[in-house]
Input
Amino acid sequence: MKETEIKIQWPNNTVTYASEGDDWFSTARKAGLEIPTGCLTGSCGACEIDVNGKTIRACISDIRGSKKCLLKVSLTTDPFWEK
Ligand code: FES
Output
């Protein structure tokens, strides 16, 4: 049985495909991006990304979507940490 493919567009304009339930970190790596991490338990917010305008914490979220749905991802930036 073929798994559902979810098309994901990354901030560097790379497009990758993932399956429902894949994790965000390894999928981002396939696109050449590294999602920052901290606690990996969902409490620090270091891994926050925007998916279709909705902020999620990548360490506690799986990739969810439907066949026809394009997920547009942007990495959130915290001005406090920017130099
Ligand atoms: S790594 Fe801390 S919330 Fe995800």
Observations:
- The mean pLDDT is 84.
- Residues 5-75 form a domain with the Ubiquitin-like (UB roll) fold (CATH 3.10.20.30).
- Residues 57 and 73 are 12 Å apart (CA to CA).
